[in-house]
Amino acid sequence: MIELELMGKNARRAARLMAAVPDSQRNLFLTGLASALKERAEEILVANRQDIEFGRRAGLDDALIDRLALNPSHIAAMTADLKTLAAMPDPIGKIIDERVAANGIHASRVRVPLGVIAVIYEARPNVTVDISALGLKSGNVVILRGGKETITTNLCLVNIIHSVLKACDLPADAVQFIDDADRALVTQLVKMDKFVDMLIPRGGNNLQQFCKQEATMPVMLGGIGICHLYVDASADPERALAVIQNAKVQRPTVCNALDTLLVNQEIAADFIPRVAASLYSDGVSLRLDPSSQPFLALDAEKGILPAQENDFDTEWLSLVLGIKVVPDLETAIEHIWQHSTFHSDGILTETNEHARQFVTQVDSAVVYVNASTRFSDGSQLGLGGEVAVSTQRLHARGPIGLEGLTTYKWVVHGDYTVRS
Q: Does domain 4-220+400-413 sit in CATH 3.40.50.10540?
């Protein structure tokens, strides 16, 4: 039986130890883990195939199977991210700012770890490595609770992580894994504010809302993306089609994939049929609002259907794209404010003033000008991976890397100084 309180106590003790571990030793863990993943890649893939086989028998949909699946390129990408992370500057101990008061005291704000981070996640086994790596590089310790659909893969990865922790003389409890799928343990975990400093849920809306309502510690929410691209009248149509295709098709099951295309009415008659033709061979189904239906005939066999009431509030996570025609930039921005989850939204335009207005007025965690929404990713933005994509307006937004896993404390030096 899992004793979560004991895990919490052990994590708190490990956090005190990790706070004093030098960056060189933390980097040794990262490079050692990269080597271990490469050396034991076949072991990982065998475990992952067992999870996929179990998932198919359990009736998991294709989108979830895609998210839990690993292949050699995924493992290679994980090892590359670990090496990139090891080469990044140590955030711990960095002086953010400092000042000397009139009485001579010297005060500075210094970056420190958050402490104990608990992460509840579904499907993606790479999260096990990402969280462990980013957590330890930033001086934190982690408690992981993955989904039952990836239990075999996660156990394999955690076993590898623990072997590297031991080889690097780091606390074994710096990474702990809840290997029991009992949901009662999640209910208990979200109440453990005595031991857990931050909770990160990575999963669907139900998990996010549960943690938001039930957790007694701070929660970093995000990862649900209803993502938009607005095609301005001045956009280069050929290049815009390439961005749209990438944002929708490159990996449709992830949170930064495109969900809604907003098209300026001046170009709609020509552009919307071109979008349909471009995406047809990729198997993309379209959902047209009434304003876009005059420019493209409805055809169920081709997957061109009228939009339903809640379609523009849906994160598709599949090869489905909503299309709406708007009269101007202001209307596009208004639609985004009404329907976006403020994850990733962008504009395709050749008009600098429109780009500036969009960036100023759209307050998503990541805002794009002439780029695919698929770049909302810690690795792509040079963070060495991510623990989540936060859509909150907290100390950190967007892909959360090293700096987002730190806080700061004031350090004050005096000469036996007293306050007058």
A: no
